[in-house]
Amino acid sequence: MAAQAPAQRRVRRAGQLLAAPPDRRRRHRHRLRHLRAGARQRRPAPGPGRPAGRPRAGLRLVRRTVTGAGGTVARPGATVGVEEEFHLVDPVTFALTPGPTVAAAAIEGRAGAHVHPEIVTTQVETSTGVCTTLAELRAALLATRAEAAAAAARAGLAVLAASTHPFGSWREQRVTPAPRYEAMVARWAHLARQQDICGCHVHVGVPDLGTAVAVVDRSRPYLPVLLAMTGSSPFHEGVDTGYESFRTPWWSRWPNAGPPELLGGAERYRAVVDGLVRSGVVEDASHLYWDVRPSARWPTVEFRLADVCTDLDAAVLHAALVRSLVRVLAGRAEAGEPVPDPRPELLRAARWRAARDGLSGELVDPVRGEPAPARAAVDGLVAELADDLRAHAEEAEVARLLDRLWQRGTSAARQRRTWTATGDPRAVAAQLVREGAVEA
């Protein structure tokens, strides 16, 4: 059959399949079998007293470096750090590909100081060090992305920066062989095995738990607009989901995922954590999957709502807005201003609308319960932060990054444009690899 002319290509519709050619799928499955077999053959012999098939070093998951060596934070927002999760793909076909050697190296600390394992071997995570300026944060993100790219390249793989792979499936994943992840599968069962999404977590330093909880309480109405700006997951298992952030509803299946309740203070937060641990639902506070939470390990507030950003500018913009918001909200808490308390159903509705339409339609103001154009919502957030951004000499950089976002659109919007123009899911994946690429 003759190739279809570009003018005859169908425009993408929600629910439309991004089907990879069947012969390529067969080749890919065949190749995966060889990769897995090769990884088993190359696995180093276990150390003395360690069972075969286990990592030779303990899982270095508790390794967050975003607030320094256990130090305290003098004032809210003085420090910031970012964690990013990425998919591993074949550099030619761009298919989702397990990287058992990358996972093993990350577990043993050989993948790089800032590269860490994730629950499945098709993903890696990076974490920056402590940053105090946006220029420092940009340099740190550039370095950690390069570190991840280098670790992937050593295994013959590439890094794809998006919250979902355009045509990959969780069925192509393998759980990372480490006690924490095996325990998660034992507890969460199929939810854990289907964890095929990547996110971005921003840690902002605060002086104490009380400040962290005060910021968490006050931040809840702002979470939807922050989410709308970061959508990078329109496709899932080869289907156009109709969402800008399909990661959000997919992730919402997990217990405790989503916006937290109004906590009211550190004691209430401790009581909530203790109650969940006693119930057996979670093992500890690190398994609270809220969109924003006090860090379980460091003196930070951790914003976990965002899709991973494809390009560096979007990641810096998101972190800049989050940190400024923390500074502003901590100031309001110190001044004794009342805490907004939107109805839970409106919070979830606003979150859903942000995930559904991103910046392409309307968002819901969860306090007033009214829709507003997405651009007006973003402008409103920036207006609230303007004095703080100006005081910290960040206003010009945030304005520049916002202009670029409006010009280019979100990652999800750019992915859809590529799919509409080419009809080729591999072109979408190639674009994601290219846009997120840094010098390895």
Structure in words:
This protein is of the alpha+beta class. The chain has one domain: Creatine Kinase, Chain A, domain 2 (2-Layer Sandwich). It is 44% helix and 12% strand. The strands form three sheets. Strands 1, 2, 3, 4, 5, 8 and 9 form a seven-stranded antiparallel sheet that branches. It has a two-stranded antiparallel sheet with strand order 6-7. A two-stranded antiparallel sheet has the order 10-11. Helix 3 crosses helix 10, helix 6 crosses helix 10 and helix 10 crosses helix 12. The radius of gyration is 21 Å and the shape is globular.
Could you give the count of β-strands? 11
Alpha carbon gyration radius: 21 Å
Kindly estimate the percentage of residues that lie in beta strands according to DSSP: 5-15%
Low-confidence stretches: 1-17, 19-70
Query: What is the typical, i.e. mean, pLDDT?
Result: 87
Main traits of this protein?
11 strands, globular, alpha+beta, disordered N terminus, two-stranded antiparallel ribbon, Creatine Kinase, Chain A, domain 2, 440 residues
Outline the secondary-structure elements.
Blueprint: H1 22-42, E1 80-89, H2 100-107, E2 115-117, E3 123-127, H3 134-154, E4 158-160, H4 179-188, H5 190-193, E5 199-205, H6 209-219, H7 223-228, E6 235-236, E7 239-240, H8 247-251, H9 266-279, E8 292-294, E9 300-307, H10 312-334, H11 344-357, E10 362-365, E11 370-373, H12 374-391, H13 395-408, H14 411-422, H15 425-436
Antiparallel strand pairs: 1-3, 1-4, 1-5, 2-3, 5-9, 6-7, 8-9, 10-11
